[in-house]
Design brief:
The termini are far apart. It contains 13 helices and 16 strands. By secondary structure, the chain is α/β, with parallel strands linked by helices. The relative contact order is 0.14. The protein folds into two domains: about 10-220, DHBP synthase (Alpha-Beta Complex); about 245-375, Rossmann fold (3-Layer(aba) Sandwich). The strands form two sheets. It has an eleven-stranded mixed beta sheet with strand order 1-8-2-3-7-4-6-5-9-10-11, sandwiched between helices. Strands 14-13-15-12-16 form a five-stranded parallel beta sheet, with helices on both faces. Mean pLDDT is about 90; it is low at about 255-265. Bound molecules: adenosine monophosphate and magnesium ion. Adenosine monophosphate binds near residues 119 and 230.
Length: about 375
Amino acid sequence: MNENINTIIMNCDEKGAISKAAVTLRKGGLVAFPTETVYGLGADALNPEASTKIYAAKGRPSDNPLIVHIADTYAVFKLASHVPKKAVMLMEAFWPGPLTIILPKKDIVPRETTGGLDTVAIRMPSHPAALDMIRQSQLYIAAPSANISGRPSPTTADHVINDMKGRIDMILDGGAVGIGIESTIVDMTGDVPMILRPGFITKAMLENIVGAVTVDKSLTDSISDIKPKAPGMKYTHYAPKGELTIVEAAEETDTPDNSASEHSHQNHGSAHSYITRLSVAKKINALIAEKKQQGFKTAVIASAENAHLYNCENILIAGEAASGETIAAKLYGILRECDDIGADYIYSEAFNRGKLGNAIMNRLLKAAGQRVIKV
Ligand code: AMP
Ligand code: MG
């Protein structure tokens, strides 16, 4: 990989920035850009050479397909050979927004973009700079997250610069993103829509529009060798360099059903909940003391409410336990901070409350290589 490309970095609001990005894309170049979920690394989706460059820049396995970003709904009909009614209903309800839809692809979509699959993943982002760039380029933009493969997805332009400077043509700086975790992916090629990756748009929100929705079995069975249907979900992701372990109170585990979340949310302030939080903190503090004695550097990932319970040199505050939005927005930045600190062992609370609990725990468990201690 040539790491000596002169990467142009421009603020989205800077005069000429978006048009420069559009021209770069039209020439087959690579542009990192902000979306409402995470930063994407874009290239012309219908140009196999441009798509191939994305894989090289990220060090991404070539069987891990890209999401095609569009700015107008009609583009779906250019890219997909069949668009079922339920897919149209979801597009109308959630686009532009953090929902990716899998449909059978038309021949014009090269296999370099779809990781060799006959299906294509499509999404319309809601970030104004992303929409403007796609429109001005008059292209469909293939874009995975703009990180080196295996690292946490970037949620600020600095994260992108750290991973991609010298490897890509341009970075559009739009500041910190809003949501902070990747889009929900729904496979619309079967009779019943199936969630392949949880995200901001929950199962309940989808079912509200199209009725029954299933979830890929590899997401719900914790110890399983079931192959995930979204190829990217099988790779180690988001992992800090140190060993991350989640410490969770056994009885606090929420079901994947979001309806349970309101209940535990209300419970948060109770005496019972306080005792549970103390037992998690006690376990984490014991683990930290042990590792410190062995000469290791440690870090804790905790909610703002619980931070004071820990005795550690590095306490990283993920957000407020009762607000999944605040945790999603900070999670990847905090996982990167663990690397900056050089933490050898990292212990995290579980964050399974609220609407985003499912999506957050999906990413956190991956980052932890599924290592969980129940207390
Ligand atoms: P990223 O944007 O880096 O999170 O990567 C895109 C994600 O979308 C990966 O996890 C892919 O496996 C998934 N994806 C893209 N296209 C498809 C497809 N045709 N079928 C299933 N999953 C897909
Ligand atoms: Mg990614």
